[in-house]
Amino acid sequence: MKRAIVSALASLLISIAAAAGAEERREASPHQHGHGTLNIAIDGDKALFDMRVPGADVIGFEHAAASDQEKATLAAAKEVLGDPRKVVEIPEAAGCTVDQSFVHYTKDPEHAAHHENENRGKDHRGRDGHDGGHHGNHHAGHAGHQPGHAEFHVGFQLTCLSPENLSPLRLGYFDRFANAQSLEVNVVTANGQSQTEAKRDNATIDLGARM
Prior knowledge:
It is a single chain. By secondary structure, the protein is of the alpha+beta class. It has one domain (2-210). Helix content is 38%, strand content 29%. Helix 1 packs parallel to helix 6 (133-140). The chain is globular.
């Protein structure tokens, strides 16, 4: 049952990520420093967050970490992004616990190895009929990568005792990373889909009637 719920939420995120990506390509470069995307899907007591932001916004560079200082900067950033409560301040009244989370930096050697292993298993997954919810969701935002650019892909899933109390959400992400300026926020709930923008000087998301 849990796997079915996660797959359903992943499918929702793939849809809104694809729609948002198409709109972004019409209006601006798919890789814009200072600007990222946050997708939120809420279904029953499950809440899934999927964020993609330029590497420069988080660590100040967009290449594989080479020096000891760069490696330390990357490790520190991944530690922060890997803690959902440092990225999004979840209201205590919602009674949420973190089920799972991940952080990928696209110029990280570990990320490259992750892709290589996935590609090796792609044919096998196709034959046995498993599409892999995370696999599809993880790659939904990578098609627009440009040579020389890199991004962080962050995802986490929550289970909430009182999901109706999730709103408002404040983004601690802006407090942690000085180069981050805005996030395009796409929200999907049982009541429909909506889009808004969160900025450094207005970092609160009011889910309101969407819950």
